Structures are given as structure tokens and as C-alpha cells.
User: Which sequence fits this backbone?
């Protein structure tokens, strides 16, 4: 090597895990071999080589090597036995990929270097020293802070994921000390990831201040008694030896007795056939095409290399030999440059997540650094930067909460932590007594801005990140843009912590960044003085909107690795993220509602309520305000002295629905009539009176809004209006559904899972009687009644079947003898004997309940059959009622959650299935618990129903094979009630 040459040293071990984290789980189609990390590694390495060899882009290397850790045991373990002792074993699906990644490196024609007893960082330090002494420059391709001690005038770090170079000024800016003091800084702060002890209570900022004042570690420790802060002084004196040991542990060796010299690292042209042979063996079709084009190789003439893969169970253990043999076309499988390589313990998902969280949360948030983009040229510059980073945080700012009608005030974006901007589009002037003045100057027209942003928002190579993306996606979809690909941090948080913490941006920012974002309420006010966002001035709207995008990007950097660390990537990738555009399109379509039907029903309900009121007054013996809890309580418990009265904290009689239902169950006429009156008046106020106000002025349809992250179990919820709570068990409730109609020439198709939660229960609790009954297509409630009461299925009285049905469904929700007694109108003792007999006939259910509670008490959560976690930390509460509530919820969650996951999978699959069958005109409109509602041309109904039923019934597969068949009832009609 000589002056002017440039050495690239790739931190291969760091690359492995970054590659593993960068892609969702990926397997080779032919045999299911895990290859996600190999794919990420190959793509990252190819891009690095292509960019490095492009003299128009940056530095051109003359020498190149990929450096790996040999094993987890090095000379540092002899110095300190606890060094890296806190690291867990690598993921099972990553272990067989270690050796494949080494062979990938060899297929690229690059030196693959490792040495027993030393870490990759020590080899990198040695090569960097040799290159400097030879007069050359070195670029270390890594984001590892441990390597920053090597930075000098000829050595720099480069992070290709962020396209960021770190030289001396960047080290000083980030850590407050120059590279030569990084060893002392790390000795003081320690490293929780590598289990380097350091000095308790000394963080990076404090360490930098101390080193600036005292010069170096030895001087600081010798003068520690001079420090004024008592706790800091005591810790430095007490842990001086720990600091000195830590310095030895973090100091990289620059004199490793390497075998390959710099002359062995000369970069040579890529051997196209050899690399393509390996890529074909891995079945990387896209990268194969790119390599073939770049190397002018006919890929069709190259056969896949032979690759022998060590089994994962044989490769466990960081010191175990892992042999992989790969041959390029024309080479022998036992000759050439193909040599055995060894596995190693690399950084773990847990440690990366922890490190990323610490790094991101330490970055300051500076509102003065945000940009207000007010012209096309500046916007185009930001678009170009976003393409370079490959990541774009996004937030559409609207002037109302309804994306179907809202005006787009502006769009905020972020391309890196601290690099955020706001693009105002429709902000208006504010006069003293006038809201909604003329449009402010200095804004880009919405159409022009979206023309520039559209290619970026739809660019498959740039990931878009948002919080509650569905709203942004729908707002942009209305403007002809389909955002893809994307991540939603609200849903990532939901997958990670359903039932533990809130998932709104403010809560997430507080939890993970210890930061309180600007308050939207403070910007727009409240009450009569409240304004819409388009009335906020550009200075404050820029600060608020850009901060939102900045926080979203930071949270994504923290939360996305946590999915890997918690081993629940597939829940997010398969159940949550794909549903966003599906739900958004459903909301966009809406459903037709007949105003006239609602108007007539409203009149009918008013008459019914009036008649009931007269009866109530007669039973009460006086007129009073039925809607007043105080007056009603005084009548029931003060005047009439009915049993079961109890007072609330305010001293009033409780007249809750439960209290009235219990009184009505005892046959008391007044409480029964009040319950009926409440139901009718609620139907009137909530639906027949309110629904017309939700009809869109342009589409003439009702567009509900679905929440994907509001329940612990994974069920969707609906609002504005809530179409999931329309009662279906009463005749009056079912009448509401008659107002939901199909347009002329079309039909509504209702597809409803039959007893899906009971079927899931039979599967997870392994109940042979129920499993067989479902397999045989029997009446499950009649079978249960027969098992419990010894009554033949043939000719069974309806009352006996009804009781069995109540028990079947009640068991799923942890019903008590008291609850069952109220539901069936029987004595509590009788209800208790029913439940006892039920468990005797189906002992597997009791076993399931007990094992589920035990699991939840140990782990704090339960799981659905697809791996979704529902957290119930209060299951260990000392309060018996709280503990019992959480136990019931924990028992129900795997059942209800699995059913919710199945219908989510069906929703994700069904649009594609309809399109593949040439039935794109059939549109999915609503999801209501276990039911999907479609709108279809009349002539396609007969074709559509079998396909819809098939997709829904097979939705659990191929991920899970249920021991019971799923059954879907589907029919078409002119209105929702008739179709149901």
C-alpha cells in the first residue's frame, strides 16, 4: 500500500445484525432456509461496492476487506470474566446464516478476515494503523462508537445506512471530546451492552466535562478528591479500579499478529459468474439481475452454486465450527478459495434495540433547526435528500379530524433526527374578528407540491414512516396518491405493548424520548375561541408539524428494532401493517344509508318512547324525569323501597344498567319498563337521529372511521359513527340495519364467521368433543346441552339449547354464576351447578383456563395463536377484584384475539383474491366483529359469495392449521338486515 491508496474496512459482524434487522423474516422458497440476513448483507455490500467504485459519488477504494468476530471469547474475557456476559444467544433463524454470509463475502471476491482471541474491532484497528503508516487513508464502514477512538486525519467512519461520515469534528460534536479521549470517556461511562462496568453515575456529558477539566483519566482519578459534587467524588474514588479496568477493556489493540497483510486486501473486479452462482443458490433474483447487468454477465448461462448449509441445531455456540461449501460454475466443491469458516456470537437484537434507544433519546430536539418549505426548488432539494436517506417521516396536517372532508393544510416531513420541515399549503390570514381570511402568501399550491411529492411518496425504495398512518394515507389517497412502502409507529407500539401503555404520540414521546411535544390544544385553543390548523401562523405551525415528523422518525428508529428483540416481527408485518390501506379504502368507499327509513324509524321510536313513559309514570305513581339518575333513584329506592339499592360516591342511588337489569330479572315491572325505554331512546338518539348527520355531502354515503390500536385483543373499533355497536339481538336494533342499503343494481353481501370463538376455543383448549362436533357440522349448542343435561339432540327443547348456548358463550368471557343466573333468569345456585357440570364434561377448558392464568402471571401477557400479545400486568394485583378481572380478560384474550387475527388475515387477503378472480367491482365496506360486508353488482353475487367464503374459511392458513374447520355464512340482499 502507498500514499494515495484508500482502504475500506467493513465491520462484518455489525453488518450481519443490521442486515438481519433491516428486512422482515425471509426464507428460501425452495426449502424454507432462513436467508433474510444474507439477503440484507448482500444488498448492502453490493450497494457499498457500487457506490465506492463510482468516482462521481465518493471515495474509490484500492483495498477492501470484511472483518468478522471469530467468537465470543477473547483476551478481554481473561481480564474480566463478566465481559459481554449479559449477551443472549443469537436468534435461531440467524445462526445458520453466519456461515452463509462469510461465503457471500468470498463470492464477492473480498477478503473475509477473522482471528481467534480477538474481536473484529481489534483487527480493524490494526489494519487502520498499518494503512496510516503506509501513507494511505482508511474508511471504516461501521456505526459502532467503539471504533471512534481510531478516527484521525487519515481514518474516518462511514455509516452507509445514514450516508453519514464521522471525522474528528463529528466525534467532538457528538461526544464532547476528540477521538484520542474516547477511550477515557468510555472507561468512565462504561457500556451496558458489552458489560463494561465504568463508574456509576457518570454519563457521556459528565465524562466529557471531567476530561475537559482534568485532561485524562489518570489525572482525574488522582485528583478525584478535589471534585465538589459529593456523589460524583465518592463514585470516582470508590470505582477508580473499575475505571482503569474498563479502559483496558475498551482500548482496541493495534498490534494483532494478522496473517493477511495489506497487499492481500487489494480490491479486484467482481467475478460476475462466481457471485451470480452464489446469488442463484440463495434465490436472490433481483440482485442477480443487477449484478449480471453491472458485470456484463449472462445470468442464464450461470448455474446456481452448490451450497451446503450446516443445520442450526448443529451450529449453536459461538465457538463451534460451521462449514459451508459453495462452488461457482467451473470450480470444484473441494478446491479453489472455498474454505471452512466459523460461526460467532454477534450483537443481539436486544442489545441493538437498547443501544438504539439510548442513542436516539440522547439527541436534542431543536425547533430552530426546522425548515419551512415555501418554494418548489427547496421542496425538490428535500425530496432528493429523502431519496438518499431512503427514509421519510410523514404527517398530513388537516383542518378537521375527518380525512374524507378535510382540507390539506400542509405536510411535514423528516429525513433524519433533527432534519425536519413543514410544507404549508393552505394556511389563511387571521383578522381580528374574522376567521378564514385570504390565503397566506409564500405557500406552494397543493397541486404543485403533490406533483413533486407524488413520485417520492410512491417510491418503493423509500420507506415512509408515520404515526396513525391510516389518516394520512386516506387524505393522500383522496388526492390520487397511494403511499408505499410504509411503517406506522402507533401500530408497532400496539404490537409491542397492547394493554401496557398508550400509543398516542405524546405518550410515546414521553416514554421513549423523555420529551413533551408541542401541544395541539395550545396552538388552536378550545371552546368558542378554537381555530382550525389552517389559521395557525407559519412559524408556530412549522414548529409543531416539523417536530411531529421529527419525533415520529426518532420513535421509529427506537421501536422498529424492538420488534426483532421481542420476536414479534411477524405480528406487525402480517396482521397490522398490511391492513392500513385495506381499512383506508373501506373508509373511503363508505356505505349507503336511506334517510327516509331513518326518519320513519325515528318517528316510530318517539311514539314507542312516549307510550312507555306513560306506563312508567303510572307504575311510579307520579311524573318525573326518567332521564335523571337522581330522580329515578329516588323513585325506585327512596319511594318504592325496591331491594338492591346502593349509593354512589356522590350520595345518589345507583341506577346503572346493571342495577336495573338485575331488578328487571327479578320480575319487577317498573325497572323492566325503564330498561326498555332506555334502549328505545338510545336507538333514536344514537342512530336514527344521528346517522343522517354523518352522510357525506358529496358521496351521499356514511364513512365510519376504524381504529386499529384501541383494544388489547386486536379487535377493530369503529367511530364517527360507531357501526359496530348497533344492537342485533332485539327487533328494534335489527331495524336500524334495514336503513343500510345497496344502490340500485347492486346487493349487499354479509359474510359472517359462525361461532368462530367457540371454534378457536375448541382448538386451543384441545376439547375432543367440541372438535369432533365442529368437524361433523353438528349443532354445537345442542351437543353441549346433550353432554351436560343428558338430553337427546333430536327433539331437544329450545329452552335447554338456549341455556347451553348461554353457557358456551359465557365460558369464553369468564362468566360467573351470578352473571349466568341473571342472563338465564334462574337461581344463582342452579347457575353455579351448570358451570360446575360444564367443566366436568369438558375438563380441557378448565385446564386451559388455569394454564393461561399461570402463564400470564409469569410473563405478564398472553398470546393468540398468531403470536399477538395482550398484556395484563395487573393480573398480579393485590386487590382481588382487579386481579379477578384481569384473570378473566387473560383467559378470553387468546380466544377473542385469535378470532380477530383471523378476520384481519381474511381482510388482507380478500381484495387480492377478488382482483385475481376478475371481481374488482366487488368492494368491502364494513367489518363488524366477525362479519364482513361487501357491495357487489347483482350479476356477480353468485360468483362472489363462494370466493369470499373460501378466503375467509382458509384465512388462518398456511401459518396455522386449525384442528376445527371455520365456517362462514354468507348471503346477499338489498339491505344489511336482510343479508345478515
Assistant:
Amino acid at each position: 500500500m502507498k500514499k494515495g491508496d484508500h482502504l475500506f474496512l467493513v465491520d462484518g459482524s455489525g453488518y450481519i445484525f443490521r442486515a438481519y434487522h433491516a428486512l422482515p423474516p425471509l426464507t428460501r422458497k425452495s426449502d424454507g432456509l432462513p436467508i433474510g440476513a444474507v439477503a440484507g448483507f448482500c444488498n448492502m455490500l453490493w450497494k457499498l461496492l457500487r457506490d465506492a467504485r463510482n468516482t462521481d459519488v465518493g471515495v474509490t477504494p484500492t483495498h477492501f476487506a470484511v472483518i468478522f468476530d471469530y467468537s465470543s471469547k477473547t483476551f478481554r474475557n481473561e481480564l474480566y470474566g463478566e465481559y459481554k456476559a449479559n449477551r443472549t444467544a443469537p436468534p435461531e433463524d440467524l445462526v445458520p446464516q453466519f456461515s452463509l454470509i462469510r461465503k457471500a463475502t468470498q463470492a464477492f471476491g473480498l477478503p473475509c478476515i477473522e482471528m481467534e482471541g480477538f474481536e473484529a474491532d481489534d483487527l480493524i484497528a490494526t489494519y487502520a494503523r498499518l494503512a496510516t503508516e503506509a501513507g494511505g487513508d482508511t474508511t471504516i464502514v461501521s456505526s459502532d462508537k467503539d471504533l471512534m477512538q481510531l478516527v484521525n486525519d487519515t481514518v474516518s467512519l462511514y455509516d452507509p445506512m445514514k450516508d453519514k461520515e464521522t471525522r474528528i469534528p463529528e466525534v467532538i460534536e457528538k461526544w464532547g471530546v476528540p477521538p484520542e479521549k474516547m477511550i477515557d470517556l468510555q472507561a468512565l461511562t462504561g457500556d451496558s451492552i458489552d458489560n463494561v462496568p465504568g463508574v456509576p453515575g457518570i454519563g457521556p456529558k459528565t465524562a466529557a466535562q471531567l476530561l475537559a477539566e482534568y485532561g485524562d483519566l489518570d489525572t482525574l482519578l488522582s485528583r478525584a478528591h478535589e471534585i465538589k459534587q459529593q456523589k460524583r467524588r465518592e463514585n470516582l474514588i470508590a470505582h477508580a479500579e473499575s475505571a482503569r479496568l474498563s479502559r483496558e477493556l475498551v482500548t482496541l489493540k493495534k498490534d494483532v499478529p494478522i496473517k493477511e497483510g495489506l497487499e492481500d486486501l487489494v480490491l479486484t473486479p467482481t467475478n460476475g459468474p462466481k457471485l451470480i452462482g452464489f446469488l442463484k443458490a440463495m434465490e436472490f433474483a433481483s440482485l442477480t439481475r443487477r449484478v449480471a447487468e453491472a458485470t456484463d454477465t449472462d445470468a442464464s448461462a450461470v448455474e446456481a452454486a452448490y451450497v451446503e448449509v450446516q443445520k442450526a441445531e448443529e451450529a449453536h455456540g459461538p465457538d463451534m465450527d460451521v462449514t459451508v461449501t459453495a462452488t461457482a460454475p467451473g470450480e470444484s466443491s473441494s478446491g479453489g478459495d472455498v474454505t471452512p469458516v466459523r460461526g460467532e456470537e454477534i450483537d443481539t437484537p436486544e442489545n441493538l434495540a437498547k443501544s438504539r434507544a439510548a442513542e436516539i433519546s440522547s439527541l436534542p430536539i431543536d425547533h430552530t433547526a426546522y425548515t419551512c418549505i415555501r418554494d418548489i426548488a427547496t421542496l425538490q432539494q428535500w425530496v432528493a435528500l429523502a431519496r438518499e436517506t431512503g427514509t421519510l417521516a410523514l404527517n398530513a396536517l388537516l383542518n378537521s379530524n375527518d380525512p374524507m372532508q378535510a382540507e390539506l393544510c400542509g405536510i411535514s416531513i423528516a429525513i433524519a433526527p433533527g432534519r425536519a420541515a413543514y410544507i404549508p399549503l393552505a394556511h389563511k390570514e387571521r383578522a381580528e374578528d374574522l376567521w378564514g381570511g385570504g390565503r397566506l402568501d409564500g405557500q406552494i399550491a397543493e397541486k404543485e407540491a403533490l406533483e413533486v411529492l407524488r413520485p417520492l411518496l410512491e417510491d418503493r425504495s423509500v420507506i415512509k414512516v408515520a404515526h396513525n398512518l391510516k389518516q394520512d394515507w386516506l387524505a393522500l389517497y383522496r388526492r390520487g396518491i397511494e403511499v408505499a412502502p410504509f411503517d406506522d409507529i402507533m401500530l408497532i407500539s400496539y404490537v409491542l405493548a397492547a394493554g401496557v401503555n398508550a400509543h398516542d404520540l405524546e405518550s410515546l414521546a414521553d416514554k421513549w424520548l423523555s420529551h413533551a411535544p408541542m401541544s395541539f390544544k395550545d396552538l388552536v385553543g378550545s371552546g368558542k375561541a378554537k381555530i382550525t390548523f389552517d389559521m395557525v401562523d407559519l412559524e408556530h405551525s412549522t414548529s409543531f408539524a416539523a417536530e411531529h415528523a421529527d419525533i415520529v422518525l426518532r420513535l421509529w428508529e427506537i421501536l422498529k428494532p424492538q420488534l426483532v428483540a421481542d420476536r414479534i416481527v411477524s405480528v406487525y408485518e402480517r396482521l397490522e401493517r398490511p391492513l392500513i390501506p385495506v381499512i383506508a379504502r373501506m373508509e373511503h368507499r363508505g356505505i349507503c344509508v336511506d334517510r327516509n327509513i331513518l326518519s320513519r324509524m325515528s318517528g316510530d321510536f318517539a311514539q314507542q318512547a312516549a307510550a312507555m313513559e306513560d306506563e312508567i309514570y303510572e307504575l311510579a305513581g307520579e311524573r318525573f324525569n326518567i332521564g335523571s339518575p337522581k330522580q329515578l333513584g329516588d323513585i325506585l329506592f327512596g319511594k318504592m323501597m325496591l331491594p338492591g339499592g346502593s349509593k354512589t360516591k356522590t350520595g345518589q342511588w345507583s341506577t346503572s344498567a346493571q342495577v336495573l337489569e338485575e331488578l328487571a330479572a327479578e320480575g319487577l315491572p317498573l325497572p323492566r319498563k325503564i330498561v326498555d325505554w332506555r334502549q328505545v331512546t338510545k336507538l333514536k338518539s344514537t342512530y336514527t337521529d344521528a346517522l343522517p348527520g354523518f352522510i357525506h355531502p358529496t358521496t351521499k354515503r356514511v364513512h365510519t372511521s376504524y381504529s386499529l390500536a384501541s383494544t388489547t385483543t386486536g379487535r377493530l373499533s369503529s367511530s364517527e359513527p360507531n357501526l359496530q355497536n348497533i344492537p342485533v339481538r332485539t327487533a328494534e336494533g335489527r331495524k336500524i340495519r334495514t336503513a343500510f342499503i345497496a344502490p340500485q343494481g347492486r346487493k349487499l353481501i354479509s359474510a359472517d364467521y359462525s361461532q368462530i370463538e367457540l371454534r378457536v376455543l375448541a382448538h386451543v383448549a384441545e376439547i375432543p368433543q367440541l372438535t369432533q362436533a365442529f368437524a361433523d357440522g353438528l349443532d354445537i349448542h345442542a351437543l353441549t346441552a346433550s353432554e351436560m343435561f343428558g338430553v337427546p339432540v333430536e327433539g331437544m327443547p329450545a329452552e335447554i339449547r338456549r341455556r347451553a348456548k348461554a353457557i358456551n358463550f359465557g365460558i369464553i368471557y369468564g362468566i360467573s354464576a351470578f352473571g349466568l343466573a341473571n342472563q338465564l333468569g334462574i337461581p344463582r345456585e342452579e347457575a353455579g351447578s351448570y358451570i360446575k357440570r360444564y367443566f366436568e364434561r369438558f375438563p380441557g377448558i378448565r385446564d386451559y383456563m388455569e394454564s393461561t392464568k399461570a402463564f400470564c402471571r409469569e410473563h405478564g401477557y398472553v398470546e393468540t395463536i398468531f403470536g399477538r400479545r395482550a398484556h395484563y400486568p395487573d393480573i398480579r394485583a393485590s386487590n382481588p377484584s382487579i386481579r379477578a378481572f384481569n384473570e378473566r380478560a387473560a383467559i378470553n384474550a387468546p380466544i377473542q384475539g385469535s378470532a380477530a387475527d383471523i378476520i384481519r388475515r381474511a381482510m388482507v387477503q380478500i381484495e387480492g383474491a377478488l382482483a385475481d378472480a376478475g371481481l374488482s367491482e366487488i368492494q368491502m365496506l364494513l367489518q363488524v366483529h366477525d362479519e364482513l360486508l361487501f357491495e357487489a353488482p347483482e350479476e356477480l353475487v353468485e360468483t362472489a359469495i363462494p370466493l369470499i367464503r373460501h378466503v375467509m374459511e382458509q384465512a388462518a392458513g398456511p401459518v396455522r392449521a386449525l384442528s376445527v374447520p371455520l365456517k362462514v355464512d354468507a348471503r346477499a340482499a338489498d339491505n344489511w338486515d336482510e343479508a345478515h
Notes: The first strand starts at residue 6 and ends at 11.
